[in-house]
Design goal:
Order of helices and strands: HHHHHH
Shape: globular
Number of helices: 6
């Protein structure tokens, strides 16, 4: 699997991250999706989070091998593909996940 962040990828500044997640620390934020706590399988099962993954890692959600990692988190995947799953790329995903409407 050769995952590469989208050419449109640009890391968010701290201010942009804070603006996307104004409720950090609240119960709503604790219930949201994250690259550290949410399993890849759960991200793939949710249409909104799957769309975020497709935006930043085109082809990832359709790769047949991704099901082997469905029980892992994206932060855990860093150990296997650090060039693709950089802290900056995963921080952007976290910001976008946090900005999704509560289910």
């Amino acid at each position: 699997m050769n995952l590469v962040p989208s050419a449109q990828f640009t890391p968010l500044s701290d201010a942009e991250r804070a603006a996307l997640n104004p409720g950090a620390g609240s119960a709503a934020a604790a219930a949201s999706f994250s690259t550290a706590a949410t399993r890849i399988g759960d991200l793939l099962d949710n249409a909104a989070t799957k769309a975020v993954l497709d935006k930043h890692f085109p082809g990832m959600t359709e790769d047949k091998q991704i099901t082997m990692a469905s029980g892992m988190t994206l932060r855990a995947m860093q150990a296997f593909a650090p060039a693709q799953f950089t802290d900056e790329a995963l921080d952007v995903l976290d910001a976008e996940f946090a900005a999704l409407p509560a289910a």
